[in-house]
Amino acid sequence: MSKIQEIAKAVELGKVKLIEGLVKEALEAGEDANAILNDGMISAMGIVGQKFQNNEIFVPEMLVAAKTMKKGVELLKPHLAGDSVGKHGKYIIGTVAGDLHDIGKNLVALMIESAGFEVIDLGVDVPAEKFVEAIKANPDCKVVGASALLTTTMDSLRNTVKTMIDAGCKDQVKIMVGGAPITQAFADEIGADAYTADAGAAAVKAVELVTQ
Ligand code: B1M
Prior knowledge:
Layout: H1 3-12, H2 16-28, H3 33-53, H4 59-80, E1 90-95, H5 103-114, E2 118-121, H6 128-137, E3 141-147, H7 154-166, E4 174-178, H8 184-190, E5 194-195, H9 199-211
Parallel strand pairs: 1-2, 1-3, 3-4, 4-5
Helix pairs in contact: 1-2, 1-3, 2-4, 3-4, 4-5, 5-9, 6-7
Bound molecules: CO-5-methoxybenzimidazolylcobamide.
Residues 42, 45-46, 48-49, 52-53, 59, 62-63, 65-66, 98-105, 107-108, 145-147, 149-151, 176-181, 196, 198-199, 202 line the site of CO-5-methoxybenzimidazolylcobamide.
C-alpha cells in the first residue's frame, strides 16, 4: 500500500492517532501535498459518504473521519499555503445557516488565502444577516463566498444570497457560491456572481473577480 493509500485508509477509518505520523512520513518521502489532500483525504471522504449512504457507517464514524481529515489538513497547511497573504484584499467566507459541514469550506478558505487574500472566516451555520454585517463592517472586502453542503441547505444559500442582494451588498462585493449539491445553473438562478466546483477553482475565480 502506498503512503497516500495509507492516509486515505486512515481518514476513512477515522484513525486520528495515526494520521500525523502518516502525513509526516508521506511528506518526508517526497509526496506532493496536493496529491496527499486530493488522492488521499478528499477521496477517502467520498468513500465515507458512500458508506454512510449505504447505512454501513453512521454519524459518529463520519465525525471521526472528519476529525482525522482536519488534523491531516492542519499538517498539510504550511505546504499548501502561499506567502502573499492579503495582496488581493479581504475575502469573507462561511457555511450557510443550518449547515454544519466545514471541511470543504475550510479548504476553500485555505486555497483563497494561498492565492493572496486575507480570509475572514465566519464559521458554520452562519445566518444570512451575519454575512451582511461582516460585509458592511469590511468596506474594503470585494468578494464573499458561501458554502452549502446539503441539498436541504440549498434554500438557505438562496436566502443568504437574496439577503445580501436586498441589503445592497452587490455594490461592494461579488458573491461566490459552492458546495457538493450546488451547480452553475443553481448559482445563476439565485443571483450569485460565480460558482466553482472545488477549492482550487474557487481561488482562481476569486483572483479573476478582483483583477478583471
Ligand atoms: Co454529512 N452529509 N451530514 N456530515 N457528510 C454529507 C454531505 C452526505 C452527502 C453524506 C451522504 O449521505 N452520502 C449527506 C448529504 C445528503 C444530501 O445533501 N442530501 C450528509 C448528511 C445527510 C448529513 C446529516 C443530515 C446526517 C444526519 O445527521 N443524519 C448531518 C447534517 C448536519 C448539518 O449540517 N446540519 C451531517 C453531519 C455530518 C458530520 C457533522 C458528521 C460531518 C461533518 C463534519 C465537518 O464538516 N466538520 C459529516 C461529513 C464528514 C460528511 C461527508 C462524509 C464528508 C463531507 C466532506 O467533508 N467532504 C459527506 C459525504 C461526501 O461529501 N461525500 C456528508 C469533503 C470536502 C472536501 O468536500 O464539502 O463537498 P465538500 O467541499 C468541496 C466542494 O464541495 C467545494 O470545494 C470543496 C473542496 O474541493 N466547495 C466549494 C465547498 N464549498 C465551496 C464554496 C465555494 C466553492 C467551492 O465558493 C464559495
